[in-house]
What does this fold into?
Amino acid sequence: MNVLVTGGGGFLGSHLARRLHEMGHCVSVLGRHRYPGLPGNIIQLQADLRNPKAVSEACREQDSVFHAGALPGIWGTKRDFYQTNVDGTRHVIEGCLEHGVRKLVFTSSPSVIYNQTDMENVDETAPYPSHYLSDYPETKALAEQRVMAANGRQGLLTVSLRPHLIWGPGDPHLVPRIIEQAKKHKLVRVGEGTNRVDIIYIDNAVEGHIRAWQALEPGSSVAGQCYFLSDGEPVILWDWINQLLASLGISPVTKSISYRMASNLGWILEGVYRVFGLAGEPRMTRFLAGQLATSHYFDISRARRDFNYKGMISPEEGMKRLLKSLQVPLEG
It folds into this structure.
């Protein structure tokens, strides 16, 4: 089977491409660069999601498309987020329709329904918020809605998946950022430190995508739906961070700031960065304050029921593998 993975050089995309390749499929990846770490017989297509002709051409002769490409982050210009996440997804959908692709699996995010308050064991019936504090979740929500609306058009079947905080060996974002900030003594706990959050080990995220894709057939309950994905075991965020730091011989996070103060600081810094056009991103934003201070974990029973999703790697085993990849000696 011919399968295209957008964002195929990214953390999730590259693991998806390798897994599909190991399953015996003819895999192509679409990305802005060349990725020497991928197996040589995976076809690499260089293009930007904002280029409709290139995206359409990449969809030619494909049976399925995994759309994992996106512009992530908590800060940037609305135009950039919109052009990549919304227009880019529209280009993928149009390419699928033009070339008769049967299945489209979209990687979304739980942040599309985040409303800056505690979200505990929330399921897929939770509505989109009326207002977003970050362009990333807003544009991912718009993209997700377009993907679900495309289901059934010209025979195209679609599903949207919401993995939460993907981590593991090779993670270029979450863990390296925690370590970098902690080493510089810039990591500050926001809130009481008791908030629970979902995480998902990279192998589990891939497994969820593969199982949803395999179940995505005409008449199935998966078609046109969205699903949360996680390890199924929420962690106390700041305990998990300090466990990671302790394993690396880094001092734990001891400084703290209230959620309200962090949110107010974020509001001020956002204004300063916008007014003066400062490069980089603020150390704190209102959206980030909420993510660090509130609980956000989700009910994954729907994924378990509809496509037999299982977290194959436990958080404990995942941590062992992560530390091994970081060359940290393990006890015992």
In short: The chain has a mean pLDDT of 95. The first helix runs from residue 11 to 22. The chain has eleven helices and 15 strands. The radius of gyration is 20 Å.
